[in-house]
Amino acid sequence: MPEYAYIAVNETGREVRGRIEAGRPEEVREKLRRSGLYPVNIVEGKADAAASPGLFAGRRHWKRADLVQVTMQLSHLLEAGMPVDKALEVLARHNRKPAVRTVLRQMLEEVRAGQGLADVIAKRQELFPRLYIHMVRAGEIGGRLEEILANLARYLESEARRWSQVRSMLIYPVFVMAMAVLAMVIVLTVIMPQIEQVFADFEQALPVPTLVLVGMSRRLARHWPLLLAGAVLPVFALRLALRRPAWRLRWDQAKLRLPLIGDIMQKLVAARVTRTLGVMLQGGVPMLDALTIAAGAGGNTWVANCVE
Fold it and tell me: Regarding predicted confidence, which is higher, 170 or 55?
């Protein structure tokens, strides 16, 4: 049977750490609740629960992992019967990341002032996505807040894992292209001048392909600032143009029609939209609100306009 390290708090808010054997993390939480403890973090294996990313040590800004961990820990505390304000107090007290701790304390003050959790997080849309806000509001209305938070944490974690896999798949071809460009630059700027000098020493005429490469080498050596600017400026121009909604719409539509990767991007966008819609409907969000939010979750303005 696997062993789990845990961090929990008792009814007075005092931190308790230890290890326990159980078949699943759910069994660990159940055993801790029967012991009068509220689980904050549970880690399988010999690792220390305090070393888990759940405490966000050493970071300065909110990241998706921060949001996932806060959401999951908050759902665990609420499932254990702890009130929202007490759960926020526990998370703020045991969090090592200053930015997260500050936000949690601010949220705690507003909740104790009589505001609902959905209203509190709605004031921080730079940290909490619209999907998050609507689902928390639906959970508060339906009395299923802890269940909704657990579903949210699993959804955000799965989304982060999928996009991480996509980025990992793109790293290799980008690396290969970068190495190919670097090799070409080295050939034209280092090797070709030496080859030209060898032929000049033997007073032999250069072959036509070599002459072409020598000409490219000379132009690269003379005009490399212009060539670099010609490669960089279009990127900045495209980024500026994409700030305009009309250009963004055309660009997002064009991306879906690209050869090879267009079909992959269509499937990724469709998967994100449908998963988001399913999670929100399962959480009790009304259909119209769920469609509006799911449309934007795909990350493509053309698809969002089509859905709306």
Answer: 170
Q: Which residues contact 298 (CB under 8 A, 6 or more apart)?
A: 269, 270, 272, 273, 276, 304
74, 54, 77, 81: which is closest to 65 by C-alpha? Answer: 54
- Strand order, beta sheet including 3-9: 15-21, 3-9, 38-44
Domains (range + CATH), the chain? 3-156 (1.20.81.30), 242-308 (no CATH)
Instruction: Say which residue, 190 or 101, is predicted with more confidence.
Output: 101
The C-alpha atoms of residue 228 and residue 204 are separated, in whole angstroms, by 34
Q: What is the pLDDT of residue 135?
A: 83
List, for residues 112-137, the tens digit of each pLDDT value.
Answer: 998 889 899 988 888 888 778 888 88
CA distance 238 to 244: 10
